[in-house]
Design goal:
Blueprint lengths: L7 E8 L5 E8 L8 E6 L4 E7 L2
Length: about 55
Amino acid sequence: MGIKGKNDRMVVLACEDCKERNYTTVKNKKNTKDRMELSKYCPTCKKHTTHKETK
């Protein structure tokens, strides 16, 4: 297995429309080098929008 958290890092997802930071998730930076992009529900926009990983 391995040590949990060695390559996993917490990332913040922000809505592309309103730039609100709504979600946090864990990503393995060793396997996934580019930024995450997920379709999630934004409570501010009240619809499903694309959420991208922020710094």
